[in-house]
Amino acid sequence: MPRSSDTDALPDAVGCLCSDPRGRRDEDLPCDLRDEEETQRFLLRQAGRRVVAADAVISKGGVSERRCFRVMEGVARLVLIDVDGRRQVTRFAFPGDYFGLSRSERELVAEAASHAVLLEFDAGRLQRLSDCNPHLARQLATAMRSNLGQAMEHVVLLGRKTPRQRLAGFLRMLHRQLGLGDVVPVPMPRTDIADYVGLTPETVSRAFADLRQRKVVDHIDRHLLRVDLPALVMIADGGA
Amino acid sequence: MPRSSDTDALPDAVGCLCSDPRGRRDEDLPCDLRDEEETQRFLLRQAGRRVVAADAVISKGGVSERRCFRVMEGVARLVLIDVDGRRQVTRFAFPGDYFGLSRSERELVAEAASHAVLLEFDAGRLQRLSDCNPHLARQLATAMRSNLGQAMEHVVLLGRKTPRQRLAGFLRMLHRQLGLGDVVPVPMPRTDIADYVGLTPETVSRAFADLRQRKVVDHIDRHLLRVDLPALVMIADGGA
DNA sequence: CGGAAATTTGAATATTGTCAATTATTGTGG
DNA sequence: CCACAATAATTGACAATATTCAAATTTCCG
C-alpha cells in the first residue's frame, strides 16, 4: 500500500516513462479501466509473482534489463558496485514501491534485503499500459515523484551529516515506511545500512550505541527498535 | 522584462482531449500544438523572462512556492541549509534544464550560481498545459527522468568516494553539460562545488591540485579547464 | 592601481576507517 | 530442544584522511 502523502500538483505526464514514439500498441492493453481497483486487478493478472529469500538476486541489472518490479512484502535493495569494490545502496524499496521504472535504475543490481514477495513486469509493456490508462499513469507518476524526493533526501543525508545524523535520518525513513507507532522494524543487515548511509558497519554500530545511550532508540532486538521519533527527527535535521 | 502573453496569438482550446482529473481547465490552454517547435514558441509566450546576477536569489523556496523555472543561460543552484548552518547544493541546473517541477524541489532555495537567464512558470499551470499537450508532457517527463538519473549519480558520488573521485565525477558532469571538446567551463565558485560534493572548499582545492599534478586537468584559468576526459572518467568511476 | 573577496597552501586537530578480537545471534543437526 | 558452528554485530586500538584554523596568494572590480 503506497503510503506517501505526496500532494504534488504536477501532472501525471511528468512521471511517464518513455512513451512509444512509434505509436505502437498492444492489442490486449485495456484503455478503459474504470478505477484504481480495476487497474490493480489487471496489473495482478499481468505480473509475474516472485517469492525470494533474503540476499537473493532479483535482477542483475545492466543496459539490457527490461523488467521492473513492485514490492508486495519485504524489502528490496538497489546496489551499485564500483570497480574498486565499494558498494553503494542507492535505494531501499518497501511494500508498495515500484523499482526499475527508470532506465538508470534498471542498470542497478536488485537484491532482496530480506525475504520478499514481488510482482514482475515488462517495463515497456507497463509504460504502454500507462500511456492509455490514466489511473496507472497517475500511480507511476506518483511513484516517480516520490523516488525523486527520496533521492534528494538521500543526497542531503550523505552530504554533510555526522554518523549519528545519518543513522537518525535512515531510521526516520524506516519509521515512515515500516513504523508501527514507535516500533520500527529494521529488516536489513548492518552492512546494508552502512552502504546506504555511506559509512562502515563499525561506524554504524557506534552510531547505534550513541543513539541508544541518548535514549533515542531502544533495541528490542537487533531487527526491532523502539524510537523517540521527535528526538530522532531533531537529530536527523541537524539539531545537536 | 516582458511577461506579457500576446493574447491574439494564443490558439484556442478546441481539440483538447485529455481533461484535468479534477475537471478544471483553462480557456486559453492550447491542446493542439502540432510539434515541439510550436510548443516551444508557446511556452516562451507563457513564461516570464528573468535575468539574474550571480548569487541572486531566484526563489526562496518553501511549501507555498508555486513557480518552476527553466534555465536558458547560465547556471542555477538548488540549496538546502540545515538548522546548524551546513549547506548542501542538491543540484545544478544548466541551460535547457527545468527546476522546481516536483514539490520537493520547490521547497529548496534557488539561486543563480552565475549570471543567468530564466523562464518562470506557474507550476500548476504548466502541469495543466502538459495534461493536454503531449509534446510538453513528453518534455517534462524526460526532464523528470533525467533529474532522477542525476540524483542517483549524485548519491553515488557522495556515498563512498575520495575527494579526488568526487571532484572528477563533478567535472565529468560539467563536461557533459557545458563541455566544448576538452574545454570545460566551471562557472560556479569553489564553495558551491564543495557544498555539492560534500567537502570543504579547502579539500576541493587540494583535489584540484591533485588532478592538475596528475595532468588530468589543466587550469586555463580559475573558471576554465582543459580536461583529459578518459582519465577523468576512469578516476570518477573508482579506478586509481 | 588598490582593496575586497575568493582561492590556495600549510600545520594541527578531530573524525572515521581499518584491522583484530570479542560477543551476540541464527540456523542446523543430533 | 539443545549444543555448536557459522555468521553477523559490536568493541577497542591505531592509522589514515578530511576538517579546522591561520596565513599567504591570486583574482576580481571599481
What topology emerges from the helices and strands here?
The structure is a homodimer of 240-residue chains.
Chain A lengths: L11 H4 L20 H11 L1 E5 L4 E3 L7 E7 L2 E6 L5 E7 L4 E2 L3 H4 L2 E4 L3 E7 H10 L1 H26 L3 H16 L4 E3 L4 H8 L3 H13 L3 E5 L2 E4 L1 H8 L4
Helix pairs in contact in A: 4-5, 6-8, 6-9, 7-8
The first copy, chain A, binds a DNA duplex (30 and 30 nucleotides) through helix 8.
Q: Class by helix and strand content of chain A?
A: alpha+beta
Measured by residues with Cβ under 8 Å of the partner chain's Cβ, the largest interface is: A-B, 48 and 49 residues
Oligomer: homodimer
Can you tell me the number of structural domains of chain A? 2
Spatially, the strands of the biggest sheet of chain A line up as 1-8-3-6
Q: Can you identify the CATH class of the largest domain in chain A?
A: Mainly Beta
Order of helices and strands of chain A: HHEEEEEEHEEHHHEHHEEH
CATH superfamily grouping of the largest domain in chain A: Jelly Rolls
Relative strand content of chain A: 15-25%
Number of β-strand runs of chain A: 11
**CATH fold-level topology of the largest domain in chain A:** Jelly Rolls
What is the CATH architecture annotation of the largest domain in chain A?
Sandwich
Helicity of chain A, as a percent range: 40-55%
Mass-distribution shape of chain A: globular
Our measurement of the CA-to-CA distance between the termini of chain A, rounded to an integer number of angstroms, reads 34 Å
Report the total helices of chain A: 9
